[in-house]
Amino acid sequence: MADGTRLGATTSALLALCDAACAANDAGGAQAFRVRHHVVAFCAFLDRFGFPSVAEISLGACEAFIRSERARDEVPSVRLMRERRTALRFVFRLARQAGLIAVDPTIDITVPRTPPSPVRPLTDAEIGRARAAALWNLSDTRRAAAWALAETTARTSELPHLRFADLDLANARVWIHGGKTTAPRWGHFTDWGVTQIRRRLTAIDTAPGTGLVYQGRNPTDAGQVATCTAIVDVLRRAGLADQPGVRPGSIAGWAGRQILTETGHIDEVARRLGVSSLDRAAALIDFDWQQPEPVT
Questions:
Q1: Whole-angstrom Cα distance, residue 156 to residue 170?
Q2: Range(s) of the domain holding residue 134
Q3: Domain boundary among 97, 115, 135
Q4: pLDDT score for 184
């Protein structure tokens, strides 16, 4: 093996299945690397006990590996346990398909859930940092345009559907078509946003159907991945990607906060965010709209 680990016959069979599947699917990215890393670690773990065949690997052995301590006696994080379980399920699915086992020993293994951080709106200062980070270089206009459109309340599922024909720059707005959980609506640009869209239009074809940030053929799937990646790139470059509660939706939360400040009405926030529920709108902007005003 390239990493120098010596494996027994049983565990070598598991690793061979993993490698063959990755090669067949041309999976050479970070996720494939992590899966193989966990499979190698699992095989080394199993070799301490000398399982004579893949079919005799027990649920207990799998669970013991998933929950085993890391180096320096560190308790594994929930994320690590989930990654280990995913890797084992992957390799045992392959083993089952190859006829080496009849039942997946990981099927009943549960790990703790990772409590999700509630999505919070970005602050004005964070928006300023992100705008600076979005100006990637003198020639790149795509990330800044994606960020400018996100500031209009467009979500990552809506961004790949926005076209040149949807722009109304005379009124500093864009028509957002809506999605599964959002309604069609006008989104309003900031002054910074108008500037970035005008920059973008110098770099793309201005035919009515030209996509503003995604120009491929699959806006629903590949397009959402591409535009989400563009937003996350900006968050990461601004040093915000790992902040608690910061997600691409945090930009719409910030925009909703601006609308609340401007209008004072949560129903207007909901309308301009494209959501039908006042509670949902309040959650997006982290606002307790039902809190009674203090008696004076």
A1: 24
A2: 124-284
A3: 97
A4: 97
At 211 the three-state DSSP class reads strand
Residue range 18-63, pLDDT digits in tens: 888 877 765 556 677 888 889 888 888 888 777 777 888 888 888 8
Instruction: Tell whether 291 is covered by a domain.
Output: no
CB atoms within 10 A of CB 52: 10
What confidence category does residue 290 fall into, taking pLDDT thresholds of 50, 70 and 90? Answer: low
Report the distance separating Cα 194 and Cα 207, nearest Å: 19
pLDDT value at position 3?
43
Handedness of CA 225, 182, 134, 163 (dihedral sign): positive
> Helix, strand, or coil here: 102?
coil
**Helices H, strands E: what count in the chain?**
11, 3
Whether 129 and 272 share a structural domain:
yes
Token couple for 225: 């991945």
Span 176-233, pLDDT tens digits = 999 989 999 999 999 999 999 999 999 999 999 999 999 888 888 888 888 999 999 9
The CA-based angle 45-49-53, given to 5 degrees, is 95
Question: Of the candidates 80, 97, 114, which is a domain's last residue?
Answer: 97
Phi-psi region of 172 (alpha: psi -120 to 50; beta: other; left: phi over 0): left
8 A C-beta contact, residue 198 and residue 205: no
Asked if residue 210 belongs to a domain, the reply is yes
The answer to whether the CB of 213 falls within 8 A of the CB of 149 is yes
